[in-house]
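Hey, I was hoping to borrow your eyes for a little while. A protein chain has come my way and I'm curious about its shape. Take your time with it, there's no hurry, and the full record follows here:
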Amino acid sequence: MPIEEVPLRPVSTGPLTFGSCSNPIKLNDRVIGLWARTLAAVPEARLVLKYRDAFSDPDLVDGLRRRFAGHGIARSRLVFDGRRTERDRHLETVGGFDIAFDTFPFNGCTTTYEALWMGVPVVTPMGKRFLGRMSASMLHQIGLDDLAAESEEAFVAAVAGLAADSSRRDRLRRELRGRLRSSPLLDAAAYAHAVEGVYRTLWQDWCRKQGGSRRSPEIGGL
């Protein structure tokens, strides 16, 4: 959980802002192509990219502009934030997004959580392996399964639907932090108990294989 209680930003009244704070190494050709298709489907929106101070590198920025241009996306629709900021300032930047984009096949984890904490819905392309389902798992825990897209077409549709539904975005802006707080994602005690249960099962299995008792010691007696 972010240490500071960074205030939520109000829903913007200007042009829609899509955003991603993913490591640029995750921006493979399929990701660029999908995000470009999504920008084409919501022509009034812009896309803000930020990852530490990576986008202070003009060569990286020029390369990404060319790749998006290859899909028909104008330079004016892309914003590259190259500032390295403290954590609370970083979260304020994230809070300025209307909708956050996730990457694939390697989803975000911290970036997804930070966006949700700041009241920003995340749309994720859901994969078949753990690294491609991390964001979907978080969304499931807070009742947003519809934002975990099982196809590229579903990703575009989910973003376009959110973009057109300002009342839902406003509601999520106010509700997401509370949903996180009350979800298993932030239930440290339940998580610790579950891990203890796994350790106990592993201990019992080891004892059985050694021909000994399945009875395990109490955690407090170890």
Notes: The two ends are 30 Å apart (CA to CA). The first strand starts at residue 17 and ends at 20. DSSP finds eight helices and six strands in the chain.
